[in-house]
Amino acid sequence: MVLHLYIDWLSQPCRAVAMLLMDNNIEHQVHEVSFMKKETQSAAYKEVNPAGKLPSIVDDDFHLGESHTIMRYLCTSRNLPDHYYPNDIKQRAKVDYWLDWHHLNLRHGSLCLIKANFFGPIKQLPQQTIDELRKEGDNVLKVALGFMDETLGKNNYIAGGNQISIADIALICEVTALPVAGASCEDYPNVQAWLKRTSTEIKSWDQVNMVFNQLLASRKK
Ligand SMILES: N[C@@H](CCC(=O)N[C@@H](CS)C(=O)NCC(=O)O)C(=O)O
After folding, report:
1. Could you give phi then psi for residue 30, rounded to 5 degrees?
2. What is the CA(60)–ligand 1 centre distance, in A?
């Protein structure tokens, strides 16, 4: 049976899962769910994912959320090329390290700034909340991007190795969201070089980012 993918193209974790599926020609049916319209909180969507979060997949009758978990599941269930999620225990642990690191570092910093600078005005958040989110986001992001830059000064790929892994895919989608957060990676040359190199290796890059790029373009006007 075809795999069902529930996504919002604006979401970083959703785009990461879509890239892995599309680059590996895994047949799937897309169901668009808008988190901005709070469709993630509907009773119908909670039947798919009780946590009310995107992305989710349904594979036969198996329901799964959390982008990193979904990507690991796809790598093992579809026997994807080893470089995405290596069989070697130590190389795999490195990929897991960066996936775990992602949530409380790069993503945490990026989300604080997205909440402050993108959703702050839309949701009319109190100025004190915006200021606190900005302070936390700026501090966390500076350390996170600095650490990535140092690592990418030594390795071409974030978890080492000589080909892209699912850790690169998760992190690169987060880095592309920085303009929405009012941030950038321009002070981090190794991150920029990695972004350029890795994005050209992801075949579905333009297709998956199309809707998100339209949002970025509309904000520049
Ligand atoms: N740790 C989760 C994060 C998922 C997440 O935060 N998804 C957001 C979109 S980027 C969402 O579904 N928000 C909807 C909501 O909270 O109602 C993952 O990697 O999948």
Report:
1. -90, 135
2. 23
